[in-house]
Amino acid sequence: MEKVEKNQIDIKMENQEYSVGLDIGTTKIVAIVGRRNAHGKIEVLGVGKAKSLGVHKGIVNNISQTINSIKAAVSEAQSSAGVPIRKVTVGIAGKHIRSLQHSDYIMREHPDKFITDDDIEALKDQVKKLVMLPGEEIIHVLPQEYKVDSEGEIQEPVGMHGKRLEANFHVVVGQMGSIRNIARCVREAGLEMEALTLEPLASSEAVLTKEEKEAGVAIVDIGGGTTDIAIFKDNIIRHTCVIPYGGGIITEDIKEGCSIIEKHAEQLKVKFGSAVPELEKDSTFVTIPGLHGRPDKEISLKTLAQIINARVEEVLEMVNTELKAYGAFEQKKKLIAGIVLTGGGSNLKHLRQLANYTTGFDSRIGFANEYIANDKNQYLKGPEFATSIGLLMESLKIRDKKQTVDDIEEAVKEQTKPEAAPVQAETVQPIQQTATPVQEQQIADERQENRKAKLTFGQSLMEKVKKFFEEVE
């Protein structure tokens, strides 16, 4: 009895609409299982987290360690969610990522028919045939704005009529080897990769509002090994890039500058670190235990802040360079909504103030909790979960789109089913309570004759079909 109930539960869980986001980061690997509730918000079913032991600056450099880390995170997520995990939407970053702008067009065969999603996909497929540098592969083809015949600045061309369909695209490119390594790790961990998404795009889904994207905003996702940037204006992705520095290099600087081990350096950064030395007192010290009987070490919090500040300023200057490359300081391209800082590195004290000063833009810390319906203990509130929640949202979007396509195909099948030849409906006289046995027999005979007529028609139709195929042969 218990076994039957367990099987029923498994079947029920299997049929539930849930998705999984898998963030393969430099310092941690996170798997989040969730589904959309009746109000459109995300209900998190389970979270799994494991230390990342094979990724350096967003790039896999040890296959077996990365596979083990993925398995550990997924196993924990499965246990907490109580559902099997098979398909995952995975994030990608790394210094090998670059982006470019490209315009392309197609000439439609039937301009009298309106533009459909198939036309958009045909145009995207044409862009995907672009010749890249040796060893590179296109990850994303993101339409910015369309042009139909002579009409430009179109956001949504579906439903319009025209011969020439043209668009400007933001194309994201990465090293083929790095992409293949991620795919292999996911596959060897017993999972199927549903989609591969650029991490800053995933983070932007989780922490940016539509108003910010319209006004102009830059998301700066400071991870362990990389700092990812995505710039939006007029609800269009304008620029993406990956800076090969993150919170990990700050920890390295503290370790070298204070002559302590990495574990203590990370703890110092998280608990006492500050990005602005002027806000720290000279007289405040923290004691680090000595190694193997050696004397304890006292470190000034102002000195610690100076070490951190030097590296953070360098990273923010690189962010500034990317903002200038896009043209964020021009009036037409100005980022009215400023900068949104997210990722684990954005937890650093006084980082927002330093970002305001260095870039000249107002900034805020981006949290993904506004999209989560059941985060009562605020566990997922931290900006370090922004990417993984964004990947979950992307996975849910893919599932919703697939469901819509399936529904349309099912509706088309129903409409295009061959109609059966009309058969005259039986006319059955209602049997009155006063009917005689003879009348009842007559009605029964009429019903039998009608059934025979139907059968004869069906048989004759099958004979005709059979004869047709025999003649073709």
Automatic annotation (TrEMBL):
This is Cell division protein FtsA. Self-interacts. Interacts with FtsZ. The keyword Cell membrane applies. The gene is ftsA. Its main location: membrane. One of its GO terms (cellular component) is cytoplasmic side of plasma membrane. InterPro entries: ATPase_NBD (IPR043129), Cell_div_FtsA (IPR020823), FtsA/MreB (IPR050696), SHS2_FtsA (IPR003494). It is a peripheral membrane protein. NCBIfam families: ftsA. PANTHER family: CELL DIVISION PROTEIN FTSA, CELL DIVISION PROTEIN FTSA-RELATED. Cell division protein that is involved in the assembly of the Z ring. May serve as a membrane anchor for the Z ring. The keyword Transferase does not apply. Belongs to the FtsA/MreB family. CDD domains: ASKHA_NBD_FtsA. GO terms for biological process: FtsZ-dependent cytokinesis. Keywords: Cell cycle, Cell division, Cell membrane, Membrane. Residues 19-207 form the SHS2 domain. It is found in: Cell membrane.
